[in-house]
Amino acid sequence: MQNVAMQNKRSDSWLNIKKDFNTMTWVLMPVAIAINMAVGQIVATLRLPVYLDSIGTVLVGVICGPWAGALTGALANTILGLTINPDFLPWWPVAAVIGLVSGICANYGLFKSWWGVVVSGFIIALAAAISSVPISLLVYGGITTGGTGLITAYLVETGRGIVQAVFASSFLTEPVDKITTAMLAFAIIQGLSKRFLARFPRAENVETDEKISQTQLIIAVAVVILLILFAIFLLGRLTGA
Amino acid sequence: MHERLSFFVKRDSPIHRLNPMTKVVLALSLVLIAFSSPWYWTPQAIFLLAIIPLTFIARVVKEYWSFFLKVILPTVSFLFVMQALFLPGESRIIFEIFGLEVTELSAQLAFRNATRIAVMVSSFTILLLTTHPSELMSDLTRRGLPGQFAYVIIASLQIIPQMQAKAQTIISAQRSRGLDTQSSFFRRVGAIVPLVGPLVFGSLVEVEERAIAIEARGFTSTRAKTSFHEIPDPSSERVIRWLLIFLVIISLALKLWLS
User: Fold this and answer.
1) Chain A within 8 Å of B166 (Cβ-Cβ)?
2) Are B37 and B249 in contact (CB under 8 A)?
3) What is the ipTM of this complex?
4) Where are the domains of chain B?
5) Confidence class for position B56, pLDDT limits 50, 70, 90
6) Helix and strand element counts for chain A (H, E)
7) In this complex, how many residue pairs, one in chain A and one in chain B, have their CB atoms less than 8 Å apart?
8) Which of A1, A69, A80, B131 has its CA 20 to 30 A from that of A96?
9) Optimal mutation site among A82, A217, A228, A239, interface B, most CBs of chain B within 10 A
């Protein structure tokens, strides 16, 4: 009996593209894009060393599905390019990968506990780092315009190959940002009512029976802080060499 | 507060009158040729012989150059300096600064990469200065882009300025209640929740109402919709588009053949 119940609760394959898109998804997408921008603006006002500009994308990926997340990411970057600075345009595949991967993680049940969310954040960061390498190499010739570009430049100067340097620098900067993003998106989902969530196509991705415990959250935050310290340590080692 | 955000400037020019699709193809082919051409001077030539004349023809010289000075020039010069200093290249050293060498090869590569980015950003800027987003979207929808995509883009352009205004209001409101947004790092991290929370939950509440409203207006209907506003697409422009695509193919083929 229990086995049958478990099977019924399992979510549909993430390959089912059609399932991701109902009217709620289409209406959530522009709101999610605006959330990306507005939260990015708040974080910039607070002068924090992260971007957090893909919370909306991750949110759509988790509750609507990977393909909706990917489309949100791609359109978000296109719109950012159309309105703020066309320099954002070439990065749309990275934003799409972020939405896609967060959706896949949610489909495998990682968005049901703080543990899973930290792991997803890490996987999203890895995917984002890998997908940004070809773009920074092809479009910018390796060294991009942001703070990440400075780290790449330093690594090249200390004798590393350009591909290695590009990968290392985005891998140093992405995890902290993406884990925090995933955790904030999860916190937002926890704050939404079940009735509201049920109207989105993949609400079962975040359905939990027991209450999310506070201890888990504290441990998750501790993991993030450890990770930041580890990144700083790695950076020190790399630049010291 | 309810204005749409876009670059568009209303003028009467030959470029403004072009079909939006022609302008999209033009912008994309300039970018693709600048990035794929095997000839070193192509991006520079495109900038001087295509981008600059286009700004004159489109009568957006003032708007373009003010954007160029504010956004494009700083980005591109930063890129040039960084790449000239850090790209590896074994050749004659031009000069040295703080132990960093600028070689002939790295300066050349940096100059080409920076011009490519300038061409890319400029051609999209001209497209956006001369094309109204709604016109672009209705033309693309007529050509088969699903209406939902157009909805997402147009709705985002409307919601983003409202949301940015709302974010500013929330920041001011929480500050007036004594929220610390400027002191130590941990205080600032702690300020994320009271700032992001109201913004996100406030905006998500509207989602359901909006879904009901647009469903009532035939959003999910698959029948072809008619448009009040006709966008002209003369056959001469079709020829221009095919010509541009042909040039891109030649450039890509040359690149593959020579490498």
Assistant:
1) yes
2) no
3) 0.81
4) 14-131+230-258, 146-215
5) very high
6) 10, 0
7) 178
8) B131
9) A82
